Amino acid sequence: MSAEITPHERSALAQVEQLTDPAKLRTLIANARRQKSSRVEAAAFARLCFVQPEATPGTVEHDVWQSIHALEQMLREERGKTILLSRTRQKIAKDGEAKTVSDLTLKPTASKGFDDLVSRGHAELTFEAVVLRHPKTFDDVIYNAARVRLEDANVDLEPILLPVTEA
Known about the structure:
The structure is a single chain. By secondary structure, the chain is mainly alpha-helical. It folds into 2 domains: 7-51, no CATH class; 55-160, no CATH class. Helix content is 66%, strand content 0%. The chain contains 10 helices and no strands. The radius of gyration is 16 Å and the shape is globular. 31% of the residues are buried.
């Protein structure tokens, strides 16, 4: 990323802050990628992940859905078709967000979603990161399991503790 923001990037970044339509944000991501503007692409991606969840920002529910939408978007871009995390969505429908996060965090091995997000440089979007950002929701056993899994994956925990916000 160059240090200088071009006038076009400045305009696009201002537009990103106002958009709430996922389709328009996806178009902006594609345009930014084509124009090789990683700054605009990253901002539009973060905004896309932020606006999709139908929950209040700052809640466990919002963070969980933000993670799901982010990974689905990454997979969509890589595979060129819509990908839904169907099993995760079904488990949430049955058990709720917090229980789903707890169960996946306590599994002896990391979920495919965890591996996918960490390998793509988005450890802050893992369910384990959600646990660390919401310690009052999860008990010490789950919190420690999340911390250990992230540490074992060589993830720097300091940025993980920051809320995932819009661009």
